[in-house]
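We include this case.
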Amino acid sequence: MMPGTKAWRFMAALVVGGLCVLPVIQLVLLGSAGPWPPERLLPVSLQGSRWLRAISREGDLAGSVLISLLISGSVALLATGIGFSASKQIAQLPRRRALLFAAYLPFAISPVILATCLLYIYIRLGLAGTLPGVILTHTTIASGFATVFLYGIWNPRLRGLEEASRTLGATPLQSWTRVLLPASAPLLRVCLIQTFLISWAQYGLTLMIGSGKIRTLPLRVFDYLFEADPGYAAVAGFILVAPPLILLWMERRQLFRRQE
């Protein structure tokens, strides 16, 4: 490879990295800014009091973070479990492509349209405006993604391992816990991260199915924006993007480790 090509790739990586990092830096700067006259490029001073007040401000932001973590964590576990089992069943059926397409539909449809279609059912079941209702709705989308994502696990090698364990006397439960799950662990961890992020960033589904009663972190960000409070919106926005950045970094390490 020519030295010029390496230089261009380095410059391109530097530009792309800067474009990714600058919005996060702007959130931190805006959340820490003191007086900031319009004619100045940078704020007059920086302070950390807004970060402390935002978290302890009547417990609203801290409570929203905990609710979002509870919902996203539950959705990740449920969706990955459903996707793992459903993908195994689909891989054994003849019309697997049609079934995969059906599994992909909840994830492909707009969340607002999906919530509109489901809202009447949730109202009749008493799930609208409840935490279980929001978790169930998020799981509907995330499990479709998990099913399609994990379908590729069921290759001849994994099926051979399962058949070998059953031939050697393992029960179905032992085949799942001692063969299938350990062999699929790397992709299952990636799926957990992806389904967590799908739920973590949901706004339309949470707003409609939660009926405004379940105040997750994305809803809190928009609350601050509607209140014309950009400082607190930046603090909430940074807290919203921090876990995805950390989890994506972990996922990248996991994928590279799997390739080695």
In short: Residues 54-259 form a domain with the MetI-like fold fold (CATH 1.10.3720.10). The mean pLDDT is 82. The first helix runs from residue 3 to 32. The radius of gyration is 23 Å.
